């Protein structure tokens, strides 16, 4: 039992790897996957930074005792009457 466990973790044993186009495709897949993971992590960090800045802006006026300064205008967001075709 000990010998089989030792052989399973021995890195000096040769490993079977695909050759040629299959290896090239596998390496491209790994590179693309790593790139996608990095991009996703950067996007998560960017969203977190935006959320924290937004939260800081909302908390800043509240600290002064004033209501939160949101952008309010007199202009309605949508037309009051729908367009006539």
Protein traits:
85 residues, mainly alpha, 2 helices, 0% strand, elongated
Overall description:
61% of the residues lie in helices and 0% in strands. With 85 residues, it is mostly helical. The longest helix has 44 residues, at 21-64. The chain is elongated and about 75 Å long. The relative contact order is 0.05.
Tally of DSSP β-strands? 0
Helical proportion?
55-70%
Please state roughly what percent of the residues sit in beta strands, choosing from under 5%, 5-15%, 15-25%, 25-35%, 35-45% or over 45%. Answer: under 5%
Coarse morphology:
elongated
Order of helices and strands: HH
Count of DSSP-assigned helices = 2
Cα(first) to Cα(last) distance is: 82 Å
User: Which spans have pLDDT < 50 for at least 5 consecutive residues?
Assistant: none
Short précis:
With 85 residues, this protein is mainly α. It has a domain of 45 residues.
Would you spell out the secondary-structure blueprint of this structure?
Elements: H1 2-9, H2 21-64
Biased composition (Basic and acidic residues): 42-61
Biased composition (Basic residues): 75-85
Region (Disordered): 1-21, 42-85
